[in-house]
Here is the input.
Amino acid sequence: METARTPGGAAPRLVRLDLDTREAALLRAAVLRHRLAPGQTRFVGLPVATLPAADADPDRVPFAIVVGPVADAAGAAEAAAGFGVLDGGAGLRELVDEPQRAVLLRAYYVTPQWQGRGIGRAACSAPLLDRLAAEAAPYAAEAVLCVNTANPGARRVYEAAGYTDTGRVISSDTGPQHVMSRPLDTGAHPAPRQRPERTEKPL
Here is the structure.
């Protein structure tokens, strides 16, 4: 769990939702009630669909963007400013040349009441996302994301957070998506890490 102060003075932090803690349970309930503006729902899936998918996939780590204390359900509802998933799964193969050294940021958003305060940029850049990636995907040296070509506002946020266009464009149900990436700065692993090999369990 890491904090960083935004230009507006708010201090967001990222809280893993795959952990068995009271705070995670309160935040899970809060993000499941999130709604986005009608024009934004075409670009990102909400946790009502993406959180169960993350729970079912060991390569995915869901997290909440949190601003403020989470003492109870009301506090969680106020503090849960957004959501995202770190994914180290097979989907990276079509996005980057070295998928074994990357992690994908997906299902990422900030709720309307917290937009425009620098929360989204702070939460997807160093040190917040990098420290979370060091926990969730310690093999990763690169953060990757996809942004819809019809969503220039999101692209500007990601560029301000240090992501650059890789030149790759992929197709999706909502239209073409630019692939963007940036190096991860975890500070703990100066040499590139390799993803551990997965072994199949015998039947």
